[in-house]
Amino acid sequence: MRIAFDGKKAAGNRAGLGNYSRFVISSLARRYPDCQFDVYVSKRRGNGLLDRIEKLPNVNICYPKHPVLKYFPKLWERYGIPHEVAERGADIFHGLGNDLPAGIRKAGRTKAIVTIHDLIFLFFPHTYSWINRHLFNLKFRSSCRKADRIIAVSQCTAKDIVKYYFIPKQKISVAYQGCDPRFREKCTEEQKEDVRRRFSLPERFVLNVGTIEERKNAELIVRALQELPELSLVIVGKRTPYADRVEAAAVECGAAGRVKILSGVATEDLPAFYQMAEVFVYPSRYEGFGIPVLEALCSGVPAIGATGSCLEEAGGDAALYADPDDAHDLAEKISQVISDRELRKTMIRRGLEYSIGFTEEVLADRMMEIYRSVLSEA
């Protein structure tokens, strides 16, 4: 089987969509060495994001063949890729980042699959410009209609696709996301102390990881700190204007000296952050899946998510869940975790057990099952 991927996120994005793309490509390539995997990238980049993938013997990084189109990457991505996919004889083309090339239906016998991660722009329209909201809606809707199969990263996202784009349920398959295997590796005490020293981390802290934006609701954790004077909060993620609101809330709550925001933390340092945390808290109001919750479970740290979204799928019965509008409820959940040793042990054990269902092998097999199902359809 030859499988082609849109590689622009894998090659250029260090965060969510990039991590997902690299995880899918690398896990499939390792699990299925007899298959060929073509990754379409508009140009060579010096960021090292594809280094590990390029070394896999059955992965081919495909750059524009046409001498003119290589100078017009957007044009190549929309119209040149389908021609090259058909020329190479791919059985499947998988758009990993909510999108399919405009001409993918003309790629001969190649079946088209798209992963839809979330429809955040419909739920939080005020956080997007009008033009971006409009373009995202057109792109997502068009890709869903062109695809032979849609992959949703959670049952929650699958329901949203049916509701807002009127897509038949039978056209959608759910395949959960995974996380970097390094989160399952135990850090040494030396590694943890090195990270603690370099980032000046407090002795006891609540951890939150993810872009610091309104829907992720980090302000709720700050307000919960009023009832938890023994703990600090460490937030690791890209700053947006919402970070200023988080810091203002910390001043208002008298917790400014206990809130630390860090941006630009390397992925290789993150496991130590998780493993040193008292508890991981992710009160996001809306996610496609919620990979940081899974990262926490893999790292052996108790996790608390928010009710009312897909986070219950990411954490299952291994995590606790708090009302995203109730700081007191969150404070009580955190207090339970840090004060009840038996609860803490149980959550860590259940988390590690639950995370086994999200290993590279399990998720690669699920993806291949979907590919084979699509190819078997008339």
Describe this protein's structure:
Helix content is 44%, strand content 15%. The chain has a seven-stranded parallel sheet, with helices on both faces. A six-stranded parallel sheet has the order 10-9-8-11-12-13, with helices on both faces. It is built from 16 helices and 13 strands. It is globular and about 65 Å long. The chain is α/β, with parallel strands linked by helices. β12, α13 (311-315) and β13 form a beta-alpha-beta unit. It has two domains: 2-175, Glycogen Phosphorylase B (Rossmann fold), CATH 3.40.50.2000; 181-358, Glycogen Phosphorylase B (Rossmann fold, 3-Layer(aba) Sandwich), CATH 3.40.50.
Number of β-strand runs: 13
* Major pleated sheet: 7 strands, parallel
What's the SSE pattern? Answer: EHHEHEHEEHHEHEHEHEHEHEHEHEHHH
How much of the sequence lies in strands comes to 5-15%
Task: Please tag this protein with its features.
378 residues, alpha/beta, Rossmann fold, seven-stranded parallel β-sheet, 16 helices, globular
Please give a quick description of this structure.
Helix content is 44%, strand content 15%. The protein has 378 residues and is an alpha/beta fold.
Secondary structure topology:
Elements lengths: L1 E5 L1 H5 L3 H16 L4 E5 L10 H4 L4 E4 L10 H16 L3 E4 L15 E6 L3 H4 L6 H17 L2 E4 L2 H11 L6 E3 L14 H11 L5 E5 L8 H7 L7 E5 L5 H11 L6 E4 L7 H7 L2 E4 L8 H9 L3 E4 L4 H5 L4 E3 L4 H13 L1 H15 L4 H17 L2
Parallel strand pairs: 1-2, 1-4, 2-3, 4-5, 5-6, 6-7, 8-9, 8-11, 9-10, 11-12, 12-13
Helix pairs in contact: 2-16, 8-11, 9-10, 9-14, 12-15
